[in-house]
Amino acid sequence: MAGGCPRRSQAADKGRTQDGNRSLASAQHPVDQPLSIALLSGGLDSATATALALERGDRVIGLSFDYGQRHRRELACAAMLKEALGLEDQLQVRVNLADWGGSALTDPSIALPSGGVVEGVIPPTYVPGRNTVFISLALSLAEARGAGTIVLGVNAVDYSGYPDCRPDYLEAFQRLADLASKAGREGRGARLWAPLLTMDKRGIVAEALRLGVPIASTWSCYSGAAEACGRCDSCRIRDRALIDGGRPDLASPWARQQLR
Question: Is 35 within 8 Å of 146 (Cβ atoms)?
Answer without folding.
Answer: yes
